[in-house]
Amino acid sequence: xxxxxxxxxxxxxxxxxxxxxxxxxRAIESPGPEMLAAMAKADVVTFGSPSAVRxxxxxSPRKPPCACIGSTSRxxxxxxxxxxxxxxxxxxxxxxxxxxxxALLAKLRxxxxxxxxxTAAAAGEGADSHGLRELLLEH
Length: 139
Fold this sequence. Notes:
The chain is α/β, with parallel strands linked by helices. 47% of the residues lie in helices and 10% in strands.
């Protein structure tokens, strides 16, 4: 599923490359009624890959605020019509958690920034785990 960009770049620089596809990702073909119901009422969704974004878009017309693990997932979310996207400046689990916290905090505070892409650093003002914990306890 990964593009051949790295492989092609290394080959063009004279490296010998052996590509090993160690896993594949497949979108769910037919989500059950429980999953569809959860998708219909989700306040915030998180995406760890562009294929996850595309799978959501196939099975749900909703585009709630979303938190993406990095820029490729963010770009896929933009292409699929998501309007409020939170993503870290650099990909990774920590930044993804911060982006998710920022999206949840914005939702809990009633701050909707439609047509905006937020970086976790910029949007996550107060998105630390303590701030999120306090807001969750209030609700």
